[in-house]
Amino acid sequence: MKNLFSIGEVSKIKGVIIKALRYYHKMGILIPRHIDNTTGYRYYSIDQFILYVSRDKGKTWDYVKEVKDDN
User: HTH merR-type domain spans which residues (predicted)?
Assistant: First the structure.
């Protein structure tokens, strides 16, 4: 199983625009697991998808951030 997904892959899988993912990073809501120092590319792990799915299921971003901060 793949460990990290590029921002483009996350965008396609979750159906969210890349600009939104960058905004969530800026706001501290969905911080990439890894950022390549050379290219600046963002990579996300599967557990971060679970947090995003929580948002899809009607949870607020405050709730998602609280869960993320607790883990």
Answer: 4-45
0.70 cut: is pTM over it? no
CA pair distance 26, 28, nearest whole angstrom: 5
Tell me the pLDDT tens digit for each residue of 24-70: 899 888 889 999 999 999 999 987 766 555 555 566 656 656 655 65
Q: How many domains does the chain have?
A: 1
Number of neighbours of residue 19 by Cβ within 10 angstroms: 9
DSSP state, 44? E
CATH classification at residue 63:
1.10.1660.10
